[in-house]
Amino acid sequence: MAKQPAVSVQHVSKAFGSLQALSDVSFDIPQGEFFGLLGPNGAGKSTLISALAGLLQADSGQLSILGADVSRDYREARKNIGVVPQELVMDPFFSVRETLAFQSGYFGLRNNDAWIDELLEQLNLSDKADTNMRKLSGGMKRRVLIAQALVHKPPVLVLDEPTAGVDVELRQTLWRFVRRLHQSGHTIVLTTHYLEEAEELCDRIAIIDQGQMIALETKDDLLARGLGSKLLIRAAHDITAVPESLMPKVTRQEGRELELVFNREKDSMMDILDGLRGAANHIEFVSVLEDRLEDVFVRLTANNEAQR
Ligand code: ADP
Ligand code: MG
User: Fold this and answer.
1) By CB atoms within 10 Å of each CB, which of 117, 125, 180, 228 scores lowest?
2) In a mutational test of the pocket of ligand 1, which residue from 19, 25, 37, 160 has the highest number of ligand atoms less than 8 Å from its CB?
3) 152 and 87 in contact (C-beta within 8 Å)?
4) Cα dist from 174 to 104, 137, 179, 253, 290, whole Å
5) Is a pLDDT exceeding 80 seen at residue 136?
6) What pTM was computed for the model?
7) How open is the CA angle 174-224-42, to the nearest 5 degrees?
8) How far apart are the first and last CA of the chain?
9) What's the CA angle centered on 45, arms 42 and 47, to 5 degrees?
């Protein structure tokens, strides 16, 4: 029998009043994958994560964590997943260690001190163990939330924009920590709108926009997808009157420079240069700019917008 997926999301929809936050979203995440969930603000990422954590009920569809349905087998599902929420919510009156001990109690874990110590150590929180939560900086609180999500040793860890607004150093520390977890066999789901983060860390990436999945591919496929690269053309003189046929491809036109979408599989560079002959006398320089995930993302979400 094939291994259970770590996370399974099947035909999940959720509306808030007239706002459709999720529309028929489906995907599976195999065990051990580092999965990126990308999308602009308001795309529905946190809604999906709340549904996975069993904090919010979907209107329709199924969600399960390692085979445990999040509503029917709530306890089992909850044991399998650790969620680091986007918002810094916590009880200000307890110390770091107390917070983690209470969280352990919630999972029925009585003697969890050794693991708590290890988490504190790994997240550089040991010297803050007895500090009250309200005295911690935002970055420190973020680390406590991560420790809290891991207190019951869940095989699946979900992080909802863990690096939004944290400084570069903490971001590096968190990346290193999460990478180690992944190497030790955890399935990681990372929500982010820092594209370079997804590009650096994730094996496979889903892009959601306005509640709809608009892409689900390996990072490499996403980058290579005939969405293409860009062509940068520089002429000796200002480029004027670009022919009608090329206009839909133009992403930037400034003085002597022109940037166009260039799909290696479909477009002919010669045809493009031919077409430009009148508009750009004496082309001095032509270069293919490689796409970055950011470009792909912008184009995909823009397409989604255009289709509405
Ligand atoms: P993301 O995390 O991708 O930024 P969210 O899942 O937080 O997006 O939000 C998706 C959409 O649902 C947004 O338009 C947001 O305003 C709306 N939304 C989220 N939670 C609620 C709620 N509890 N009540 C009403 N609308 C909500
Ligand atoms: Mg969010």
Assistant:
1) 180
2) 19
3) no
4) 22, 15, 8, 40, 29
5) yes
6) 0.80
7) 50
8) 41
9) 90
HEC string of 197-218 equals: HHHHHCCEEEEEECCEEEEEEE
What the chain holds in terms of domains, given with CATH numbers, is 7-223 (3.40.50.300), 229-290 (no CATH)
Burial class (CB in 10 A: 0-12, 13-18, 19+), 10: middle
Nearest one of 269, 280, 204, 175 to 235, comparing CA atoms:
280
> What's the pLDDT at 225?
64
Which residues have a Cβ under 8 Å from the Cβ of 275 and sit 6 or more positions away? 243, 245, 246
User: CB within 8 A of 195, min separation 6: which ones?
Assistant: 38, 292, 293, 294, 297
| Three-state SS at 98 | helix
Specify whether the CB–CB gap between 7 and 65 falls below 8 A: yes
Provide the residues around ligand 2 (an ion) whose CB is within 5 A.
Answer: 45-46, 86
Could you read off the pLDDT of 284-296 as tens digits, one per residue?
Answer: 888 887 767 777 7
Alpha-carbon span 99 to 90, nearest angstrom: 8
- Regarding the beta carbon of 43 and ligand 1, being less than 6 Å apart is answered yes
